[in-house]
Amino acid sequence: MSFYHTNEGVSEYIKMAEGYDGRELVAILSEHVDTNARILELGMGPGVDLDLLDKHFAVTGSDYSRQFLDRYRTTHPDADLVQLDAITLKIDRSFDAIYSNKVLHHLEDDDLQKSIQRQHDVLNPHGVVMHSFWYGDRLEEHAGMKFHYHNEGFLTKMFSTHFRILQLVRYTEMKKNDSVLLLARRAEIS
């Protein structure tokens, strides 16, 4: 995924994503998580959703791309940011919620399963995850990156071992019902 590790790729992504944010997703998350809860955003990119989350929560932004983190720090020098791989989640803190907006679709199925396990591990008891995905059952590639489209059945299968699904709904971002939102609470595993 070298696209996100070059200034040119990052600039192209920022231009492409202009006008889109997770405002509606953050509003839904706010219904399930207390104000000032500790939230980890996976794959913050340019920080558009991080700014929205920061209005309600104690938020930590993360990205695998140093370029995104460095750009955000130029305008938000006091932001709590960490360079983090969404698969291994090597972090020594715990959170009340983990949020991502169209990030985990880059992961192969086995890596997504590893990420889900790690998310469970870094969440506090009763913590929640909220992730959005492109809806479907296909694979696309762009600039060397893979985009896995997922449906409700696949997401239920992937998350239900570690989480109790609270919401799994389709919504519209660019085209009618092109996206799916998963909101789930951490399950106790015996």
Question: Secondary-structure blueprint of this entry?
Answer:
Layout: H1 7-16, H2 23-30, E1 38-41, H3 48-54, E2 58-63, H4 66-75, E3 81-83, E4 95-101, H5 109-122, E5 123-134, E6 139-142, E7 145-148, H6 152-159, E8 163-171, E9 179-186
Parallel strand pairs: 1-2, 1-4, 2-3, 4-5
Antiparallel strand pairs: 5-9, 6-7, 8-9
Q: What report would you give on this structure?
A:
This protein has helices at residues 7-16, 23-30, 48-54, 66-75, 109-122, 152-159, and strands at 38-41, 58-63, 81-83, 95-101, 123-134, 139-142, 145-148, 163-171, 179-186. It is an alpha/beta fold and 190 residues long. It has one domain (2-186): Rossmann fold (3-Layer(aba) Sandwich), CATH 3.40.50. The strands form two sheets. A seven-stranded mixed beta sheet has the order 3-2-1-4-5-9-8, with helices on both faces. The longest helix has 14 residues, at 109-122. It is globular, with a radius of gyration of 15 Å.
CATH class: Alpha Beta
- Helix and strand pattern: HHEHEHEEHEEEHEE
CATH topology label: Rossmann fold
Mean pLDDT: 91
Q: What class would the helix/strand composition place it in?
A: alpha/beta
Describe the main β-sheet briefly.
7 strands, mixed
Count of distinct structural domains = 1
Q: What overall form do the CA principal axes indicate?
A: globular
Using brief descriptors, characterize the structure shown.
single chain, 190 residues, alpha/beta, Rossmann fold, seven-stranded mixed beta sheet, two-stranded antiparallel ribbon, 9 strands, 30% helix, 30% strand, globular
